[in-house]
Amino acid sequence: MMSWEENYQKWASKNDLPTDLQADMERMANDDGAKEDAFYTPLSFGTAGMRGILGAGINRMNIYTVRQATEGLARLMDSLNDPQIKQRGVVVSYDSRHYSPEFAAEAGRVLGAHGIKAYIFEALRPTPELSFAVRHLHTYAGIMITASHNPKDYNGYKIYGEDGGQMPPKESDIITDSIRQADMFEVPVGEIAELKAAGLYEIVGTDIDNAYLAEVKTVSVDQNLIDTVGKNMKLVYSPLHGTGALIAGQALRNAGFEDVLIVPEQAEPNGDFPTVALPNPEDPKALAMGIELAKKEGADVAIAVDPDADRMGIAVRQPSGEFVLLTGNQIGAVLMNYLLTAKKAAGTLPANGVLVKSIVSSEFAADIAKDFGVETINVLTGFKYIAEQIQNYEDTGAHTFLFGFEESYGYLVKPFARDKDSIQATVLMAEVAAYYKSLGKTVYDGVQELFEKYGYFVENTKSLTFAGVDGQDKIAALIAKFRANTPKEFGGNNVVKVEDFANSTEVDVATGQITKIELPTAEVLKYWLADGSWVAVRPSGTEPKIKFYVGTKGATADQADANLAAIKATIDTYLD
Length: 576
Prior knowledge:
It is built from 20 helices and 23 strands. By secondary structure, the protein is of the alpha/beta class.
């Protein structure tokens, strides 16, 4: 393995670097710390793809790391020895971040050099539409250029499999091996004009938009409700300078919501995200402009999505007139409750319906589902695992998929896409708002009613970032510390069960009985407490972070908050 100095010199010796990368090399010329960080290791490529800071270096997002990643996919397709797979090709989309169009084009050039057909979107499109496009065009794979909700200095690259979900681990591992074998400066690329002439580089857009929007229209459950109440209900929506405005506004109008107000300062795509420090709908600051517009216009909800429009957040009006953000788990619960309520009233609730959620998401929605006789299936974090369950149900008929979600603001209603879909979630949330409005209530009132019926669920996620050369070692050491020394309690509440998803074991603390976990392995530890609360420890799959998730509930909001505070305090002592 080459040292960072050798990697840097290899780049420094190239005299044909693009202007922006050459300028970046010059900026770090006298900064060994910056050079080491940019060149000490290749940008990590996991099952969710790669994500990193834009710039020069093997640990950065640039045209060479994009070419290298695409070369890995192309070599996998070459190895299958099937001309039809190459002709089916790969569809490529991108968001509003800096260099996203260029990276999409570079991916197409690499694919074309291997004789693989590339469908390139004419302009930026949401991640869920890319997932849909893979299925609609029957391509072998899809590529999405996006860094999701990261700051403006980032971009990323995700690969999707032929089911529209993110590439399965087996194929992803083959791609990763191929990436490491490819010299990023030697990856072959075709000329776009020549590839177009050969039928290997096709621009797509409106036809896929129309097909996707036709499917989104089926997400609505009670059209009469929308026609009578939703039609004149004010909705505030923000794409946070990303892809959402291109599709979501039309999707809402198609559903019958005619009074949609898009936050004007955040409507246009802009990779600088000039009105927000972080384009993340989990962040209250990201919804500040939407909330102000909602107050001014008398709207009850303000919705925002991240730049690639796969995550959705919402702020709802309280009786005081002020707005409060719902958590990802609360959004999942209120959407699930409405879906089941509306389907039951319409007589369309299937007997074998199922909710699919991640292991670090709240039990709130699961308790609601149980009340309706609907089973909940827990899967590992990552929407590809929800997609796998959907495919399994379609193959076996064991269940009818009703809803899938992750606490990180990702939701899926209908499986014509196989990833988080904020467009679907936005349309359904608008219908939820209309439902409560028809009852003389707001979404906030609806959440409070659910708390009173099922208990006050509260959750929290704490992230620790370990960037730099030794970041991954620190994360691994922290996980090892928890695994070697099982905590006895959190917040004075005894640990009664420990799930170790890396070892596929569930241990009953009192009896020592070990049960096998029937899920793929993952570096996750989850501790269940005597009162039903839980704590999970998990490294991020795409960022140098380790995350601590807490879920608890109480008979009152104060009790739930006190439980949460006590558990968080214990976590802090372990970290110290």
